[in-house]
Specification:
CATH class of the largest domain: Mainly Beta
Oligomer: single chain
Helix content: 25-40%
Shape: elongated
Radius of gyration: 54 Å
Strand content: 25-35%
Number of domains: 4
Amino acid sequence: MKSPTAPPPTPETAPVADAKSSPATRAARETATPSPFASPPSTVAGRIIRWTIFLAIIGAGWHYRGAWLPWVKNRLQPQAAAPARGGERVIPVLAAPVMQRDLDLYLNGLGTVTALNTVTVRSRVEGEIVNVAYSEGQVVHQGDLLAEIDPRPFERQRDQARGAVARDQAALNLALLNLKRQEELLKSNATTQAQYDLQVATVAQAEAALQTNQAVLETAELQLTYCRIIAPINGRVGLRLVDQGNIVRANDPTGIVVITQLEPIGVVFTIPQDEIPRVQRRLREEHELTVDAFDRSFRSKLASGKLAAIDNQVDATTGTLRLKAEFKNENGVLFPNQFVNARLTVEKLAQAFVIPSAAVQRGPEGPFVYVAKPDSTVELRRIVTGPTQGTETSIQTGLSLGDMVVTDGVDKLQPGSKISFRGANTTAEASPNAGPPGAPASAGPEASPKRPAAEKGKA
């Protein structure tokens, strides 16, 4: 009998059977059983669909190329070749010439404008103001009428004093006449010495009474003059403090008006205590020091005056000394309590070599500058600096008259670097004949002979 047919291997037993089969058997089975992942045979319709999809993708990419093409270019474009190592790079700079001229040295201090005279005008008598003769802010002169007080009560007092003086004068005249009669009677022994002495005393009493009432009359006349209030100084009046019709009293604290003297006017400013010997030495040499007043930003010069006084002690809390300068103030730009910057001239360097302070650089070996050479390269030059004033520095050694020093672009320079002068005014700025801002054209080399180099003590 035939044995029954064996069932097909299950998925669990298939790997075991495959493992036991020979390589030829497995190859034959794989060839006979098609793979479920094998692609179906290509047809004409499938190829058309695939090409249609491919062309649609290309068309869409070309239509929207503005969105992805720049990004692709940035990614695929090769970086620009870097300059060859050691190649020369031209650095744009600004330069200024070395000048030779007088350099003034200053001391700056914060100051306050103060009036030389300020007067609060008050009434010296009591009464009603019947006239205000000034306008607010008016410039008045000494003796100008400011206000009037009702004079009638004081006129009555004056008239009463005049009557008393006339009465006393009449009494004195009678006493003198009786004294003369007593003298004649005494010569003829018709009266006694006691009567004569009594008449002499009567004359003396009449004279004393007359002097008293004369003083009362003069006081009444003086009170009457006080009814006219006049300006005691030249200056500008402030805002009105009392209006017409008000009753004022003698020595009223508020006063009637305030007058401030504006011409001349003073400025009180301070300097450090360490600069006192310098100022004193200069004051002994010149006897008169110039003081300039500038606005708060130190850009506009307001007025120029002279040093008037030096305080007698140093402020221990701030370590400063107060100085006072006087200005003519003819244009009226200075007002009391105005804040200004005061600049005191304390020294002058004659024929000093001067360069912009921006050109001076600091290094481990000391200050130096970059000097522009005729071949458009720079040279590092060691220098010895002198006093600095504002944006200018004096040079003692290391530079010659007319040398061009770099003032801007220094941070990119090295000795031997190639440079070019930038800006539209390159010629004027880089020319040795160009002076500093505000300096006359004659301040160049033609105005003073060129020296080989700056020497210490001669700059």
